[in-house]
């Protein structure tokens, strides 16, 4: 391995270890924090792998395991970061498990090959890794406009453009050069980019905006231990214009503004004649909501709960109520309602209106 790779990969590992220490100290109690810590450690193992002497047996398996799981951990972290109100889909563990098994088998039990032939298992393993990273990028992109936390929106953008895209490039390059001569300078260039990304991340999260990670990660639920970290900055005081805007927003929503199907924060800002970024700050910093759908669901589920418990509306199908209050279909309504009441709308109606 070249001296350039040793220098830059060593620098990247040191920076990532510094970031991992920050996460371990301040965010380990959060599931998303532990997931991010696992991702940082896995990337460190990946950068160290070419430097270490040839390993075999359980030691090689132990070091290769987190490397194989990097795409899966990336997807899981993006889900926890961006969809904190929804559990990770059960079907998602199937491709993760398949990727893990095939990745281990492809590395430790390669098939006999000619000099210009690739292992089918290796090819399949790389395709699965690319798929998991793509799912993580898709998670970052979807509902981006619904996120009300400014620091988390910037963190999403960084991950989407830099980290995820770079991981796709690295896995693609691994697939191309796995059975071909590696051009001179490519490992050093790879380590250089890794060190630059690590440097930018550390400068941002540790120096320029030390509270960014704490504001971005999902808050602990009431059943979890309270996070021991510096409290978030208090919301700025409202001036007279902002107080008027906030009152206008509250009146509009209490008068049924949330019932508009497919309502976006941009549309709501236009209806209220308020700049979109100002509206985001009002809902996030002054009303305490981190996601626009979460804010809408507060009003929608309140109305649905009242209507489901109303004997005069017992004849209305649940779907009709869902459509009336702004949902496009029954599935998202059921999910939002169950998160609030821990039971489906039908079960809630039966409880409130026994036969």
Q: How would you spell out the order of helices and strands?
A: HHHHHHHHHHHHHHHH
| Structural classification | mainly alpha
Which blocks of ≥5 consecutive residues have pLDDT under 50? 223-232
- Note the main sheet: none
Query: What is the radius of gyration computed over CA atoms, rounded to a whole number of angstroms?
Result: 24 Å
Mean pLDDT: 85
- Enumerate how many helices there are, as a single number: 16
How many beta-strand elements?
0
Give the termini distance in whole angstroms: 76 Å
Binned strand content? under 5%
What do these coordinates show?
The protein is 67% helix and 0% strand. The longest helix is centred in the middle third of the chain and has 28 residues, at 150-177. The model is unreliable at 223-232 (pLDDT under 50). It is built from 16 helices and no strands. It has 355 residues and is mostly helical. It has helices spanning 3-26, 31-48, 57-68, 70-82, 93-108, 120-141, 150-177, 186-208, 212-216, 240-254, 265-272, 276-286, 292-308, 318-324, 330-341, 345-352.
Write a brief caption for the model.
The chain has 16 helices and no strands. By secondary structure, the chain is mostly helical.
Task: For the structure shown, list the relevant keywords.
355 residues, mainly alpha, 0% strand
Write the layout of secondary structure elements.
Layout: H1 3-26, H2 31-48, H3 57-68, H4 70-82, H5 93-108, H6 120-141, H7 150-177, H8 186-208, H9 212-216, H10 240-254, H11 265-272, H12 276-286, H13 292-308, H14 318-324, H15 330-341, H16 345-352
């Amino acid at each position: 391995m070249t001296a350039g790779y040793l220098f830059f990969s060593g620098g990247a590992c040191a920076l990532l270890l510094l970031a991992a220490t920050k996460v371990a100290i301040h965010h380990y109690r959060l599931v998303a924090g532990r997931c991010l810590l696992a991702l940082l450690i896995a990337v460190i193992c990946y950068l160290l792998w070419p430097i270490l002497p040839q390993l075999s047996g359980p030691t090689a398996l132990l070091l290769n395991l987190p490397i194989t799981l990097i795409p899966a951990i990336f997807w899981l972290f993006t889900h926890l970061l961006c969809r904190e109100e929804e559990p990770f889909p059960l079907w998602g563990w199937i491709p993760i498990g398949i990727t893990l098994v095939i990745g281990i088998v492809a590395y430790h039990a390669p098939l006999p090959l000619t000099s210009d032939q690739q292992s089918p298992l290796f090819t399949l393993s790389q395709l699965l890794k690319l798929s998991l990273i793509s799912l993580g990028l898709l998670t970052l992109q979807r509902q981006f406009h619904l996120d009300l936390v400014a620091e988390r929106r910037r963190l999403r953008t960084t991950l989407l453009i830099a980290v995820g895209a770079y991981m796709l490039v690295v896995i693609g390059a691994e697939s191309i050069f796995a059975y071909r001569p590696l051009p001179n300078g490519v490992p050093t260039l790879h380590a250089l980019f890794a060190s630059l990304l690590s440097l930018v991340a550390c400068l941002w999260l540790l120096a320029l905006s030390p509270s960014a990670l704490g504001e971005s990660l999902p808050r602990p639920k009431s059943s979890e231990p309270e996070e021991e970290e510096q409290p978030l900055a208090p919301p700025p005081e409202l001036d007279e214009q902002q107080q008027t805007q906030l009152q206008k927003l509250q009146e509009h929503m209490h008068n049924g503004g949330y019932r508009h199907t497919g309502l976006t924060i941009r549309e709501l800002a236009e209806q209220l004649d308020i700049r979109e970024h100002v509206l985001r700050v009002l809902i996030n910093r002054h009303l305490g909501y981190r996601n626009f759908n979460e804010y809408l669901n507060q009003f929608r589920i309140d109305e649905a709960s009242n209507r489901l418990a109303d004997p005069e509306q017992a004849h209305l199908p649940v779907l009709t109520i869902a459509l009336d209050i702004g949902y496009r279909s029954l599935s998202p309504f059921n999910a939002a309602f169950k998160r609030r009441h821990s039971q489906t709308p039908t079960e809630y109606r039966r409880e409130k209106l026994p036969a």
